[in-house]
Amino acid sequence: MATPEQQKFATQIDANQQALIARLAEAVAIPSVSGDARYRKACFDMADWLLASLTKLGAKGELRPLGKQNLEGQQIELPPVILADYGNDPKKKTILVYGHYDVQPALKSDGWEHEPFKLTFDEKSGRMYGRGSTDDKGPILGWINVIEAHQQVGVDLPVNLKICFEGMEESGSVGLDDLVEKEKDAFFKGIDAICISDNYWLGTKKPCLTHGLRGIQYFKLAINGPGADLHSGVFGGVVHEPMTDLFAIMSKLVTPQGKILIPGINELVAPLTDEEKKRYDVMEFQISDIDEATGSQTAISDEKQQVLMGRMRYPSLSLHGIEGAFSEPGTKTVIPSRVVGKFSVRLVPDMTPEKVVEVVEKYINEEWKKLGSKNTMRLDAEPGGKPWLADPNHYNYRAASKATETVYGVKPDLTREGGSIPVSLTFSEILGKNLLLLPMGRSNDGAHSINEKLDISNYIKGTQLLGLYLHEVANAA
Ligand code: BES
Ligand code: ZN
């Protein structure tokens, strides 16, 4: 049951819906793609826009520079982190909220129905389409909406907020770990609990709370051969071809059934306990949720438990792409001279990026030797992210569960997720506080895909949920 103050806040969010949607439209229009140097200025614009919104509401914040990075051979300035305080009443709890303002790349020509950086409405379904709508601009604006609505109805925010919005999450959160370490006894001091809204419901109907994420280790496997691209009529059958070498190695990493073939990887996985196994039974989920989210019927298994465990508690290896391969339409008869294969492993407890790099390097070196190729091979491991698992028997989760029941009228499922948010483990370890993932969007939102969307109802109710969570956590013990 909501208190009168909570009710006032929630009613204001409903009443102010149009303005909140306009705010999201403004944010989506700034193409803050962190992975492409051409959009770096937009990342800075997005950070300025957010800081201005927070400052206008009376938050005390700043943009923290993180130094430079090397992107596509260029040294460029990293997008800044926004650190802001809202309230500093020693009698109140202090909650750290985190989200990211950078987004995945998006081009209309990728197959989007509308311009990706223009929030577009489908009145009938109540959906708002646009890059970043669900991942993660809707959720970060949720926090701003919460502060604003409290002011509008004259209700005091029941906690102090520390706000951390970063602009490199989609590109591995470069520089953020160092900042957290540096600021642990300064900006991050005095935090009681942490809340991140950057994940999704398991399906499309029932909300959830998430207490685990997989980590990630990304690899680039470069094969260098001839000094230039060659004519396959003249040199086919004559030289060792880089792409053939690359396919030979990449085909030995994982089976079409998803089994990782690298010796030593599966042994790193924490064993499944009976108690954990039962959790997958009670989660509200059907194979059709996967079908809907993928727009296909391509799930590896038909068994609910298997599918859930494949996403939440086992590692996976995905092949992402090949730089340098001929990928245009037409039938160019080329032998590419250099190709770079990209793949990544999603990590679960007790895997660490270091151990995974070690076994992958050993295996690929052995397999490379077996090829007997005269080309050269180089394997690069990108900075990795460890998996994260939190204790859901904490007041932080009880508060979020209560708030979910008030807003949605159901008890949320307790899930783990397959994606990664690199800073989640950093926060938990360095700050030593409980962390909760409280999602706004649904499983079929299409994060990272074409036609990414957020349902208006998820944006509005999701904002109410963030606000009511703050009310519940303020008094929880
Ligand atoms: N919002 C996702 C994380 C996520 C994905 C949570 C799926 C729950 C389910 C986040 O923005 C993301 O995509 N992270 C990257 C991190 C990577 C670049 C280190 C990811 O998981 O690929
Ligand atoms: Zn995200």
- Major sheet characteristics: 6 strands, mixed
Total of DSSP H or I helical runs spanning 4+ residues: 14
Can you tell me the CATH topology of the largest domain? Answer: Aminopeptidase
Shape category: globular
Average residue pLDDT: 97
Highest-level CATH class of the largest domain: Alpha Beta
The name of the CATH architecture of the largest domain is: 3-Layer(aba) Sandwich
Structural class designation: alpha+beta
The CATH superfamily of the largest domain appears as Zn peptidases
Number of strands: 20
Are any ligands bound, and if so which?
Answer: ligand BES, zinc ion
How big is the Rg?
A: 23 Å
**Percentage of residues assigned to helices:** 25-40%
Low-confidence stretches: none
How many discrete domains? 2
Strand content: 15-25%
Strand order, largest beta sheet: 1-4-8-5-9-19
GO molecular function, one term: metallodipeptidase activity
Binding site for Mn(2+) 1: 135, 170, 448
Binding site for Mn(2+) 2: 100, 135, 198
Protein name: CNDP dipeptidase
